[in-house]
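Exercise: predict the structure of this protein bound to fe (ii) ion.
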Amino acid sequence: MKILFIGDIVGSPGRGIVADRLADIVETRQIDLVIANGENSAAGFGITPRIADELFAAGIEVLTGGNHIWDKKEILEYISKQPRLVRPANFAEGNPGSGLYVGAARNGVPYAVLDLQGRVFMASNDCPFRAADRELARISPEVRVIFVDIHAETTSEKEAMGWYLDGRVSAVIGTHTHVATADEQVLPGGTAFQTDVGMTGPHNGVIGMDKTAILHRFLNGQPARFEVATGDIQMNTVLIDVDETTGRARGIERLRFRTD
Ligand code: FE2
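Solution:
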């Protein structure tokens, strides 16, 4: 079974490349399941119900979130009704939505998607490692294919999560830092891992944002309004091949698509 995971979709340029290219990629690569991180899809900050629907219509089955998931208030109501949009499972109790989605892929294979958020240099949420234990215990043993998005700031916390879940899930892929790392591998227990998948959007900027405002903030320490960058639109993804009978990954490949 082939799973495509699309890195953090940033603003309309990120949504645009997904709309233009995804259907063709799914067909030519014979992909059974598409998952994407969508928490930056509304102008870089959050996601709206309309954008989530648009991304689902483009062929994405499950959207994951992270620290920006609540940036657009309308999503609070939407997420409680749309289980295919998940937010980190280790957010405080009482938040709407869920960190876990269990469904069936277009080839009929059941799968689960788990969203977690790191704590180093981020908000002090519940422990993502213990949250992973708790959520994995809720998944029926018939569900062998399990995908985990670890949305975290540091490489160390993401690597640690890969080792912690090795042999228990099919893949642990990092998001949030928006720069793809070159460490894709299948860990000894059969878990596909990459520290960060990279982002989907304009690369002629600073992690997707217009560089002028970012540089102003770095140089002067003054607040600046961040706008989505333009130019060098890329879609950074990983293609994971999973043995659906065991849930073990057979391979992981980094795939980068560009508009030109
Ligand atoms: Fe993030």
